[in-house]
Each structure stands twice: as C-alpha cells, then as structure tokens.
Specification:
Length: 198
Amino acid sequence: MKKLIFATGNQDKMKEIRMILGDLDYEILSMKEAGISADIVEDGKTFEENAEIKASAIAKIANCLVLADDSGLEVDYMDKQPGIYSARWMGEDTSYDIKNKKIIDNLEGVPDEKRTARFVCVVAAAFPDGHVITKRGTIEGIIGYEQRGENGFGYDPIFFLPEYGKTTAELSPEEKNKISHRGRALELIKSELAAYEG
C-alpha cells in the first residue's frame, strides 16, 4: 500500500480526512504518526500559498506524497476576517468558545442578509517529483446568533446553514463530509491521487 502523509497534528481533522479518503489505496499518516516534527512558517497571503508551503516542506523531508490543507472562516461583515488567520486569530491558545463568542458579538444587531460567511479549504498535494497541485472547496452559510451543536470543531458551532436549519456542528460527520469545504476540496484532489501512479 502506498503511503501518504497529511501535514497536520489536528486529530479531528485526521478523522475527517480518513473518512473522506478512506477508499483510496493509501496508508494515511499524520505527521506525528510518520515521525516528522517540523516548525513550518505559514507566511503565505492566501489559503493556496499556505497549503503549498506546508505540503512542499514536509514532502522534502518525507520523500513521499504529502497533502496539506489551509482552511478558515471568512465573515463578510468583518471584511472576510478571520480568513487565513482563523487558527491564530485572537491568539493561537485562545479557545474557539471565546473566538466564536467574539464573532457573534461583532455581528450583534446585524440582520441575516449581512451575516454571510463561508468556510474555505485549499488542499495542496506535493508529489515526490516536486510538482504541487491545489484544489479549493467552499461552503456558504451565515453566522448564527448562538453556538449550537456538539459535532465538528473550531467555528462549526456558529456556522449556520439555512437550507439545513442547522450549524455545521449539528450535522452528523457523514452529512458534514459530503458538503463541507474540506470534503469538497478533498474530493477534488482525490481524483488526481487516484490517477497518480507514484
């Protein structure tokens, strides 16, 4: 079986990735499972640049196919913040409970039509021969008025999908993976990986 490293230490993310890519003929390892620890400076200006930086850096160390993603929440009313800084916004050690509350507070009194937001995920695949491809997935929604749901992680409890009447934290993992930004980006990259004979 071929080996694939996903450049993340986030176990919640690894669970989603394994569910979505599970039918590929790859052993999917996190950096920790592959015995790699690297401090990568994500200084890109876009989701694409950051995903490429991570994937390429680990591919140089691992010498195998490496996937990395950069994802975040864009809130239109907040000028698309937190965007690429979603994980680091308000400080890396700040809990998402506090971050989510801050976003809800920022949008106090703002009507539904101006609460538009999206999750963005770009997945980069860095191949051992040095070439890199990226695929972008997005999901549109609005910022809810309270945190709801126990599933998911990060900003999921405030990301409300009007057509489902639920936040992404209230969807089952299977439902979420079908429609999520990460699910969409991984599905796009999956067809490229299936064709890759490395």
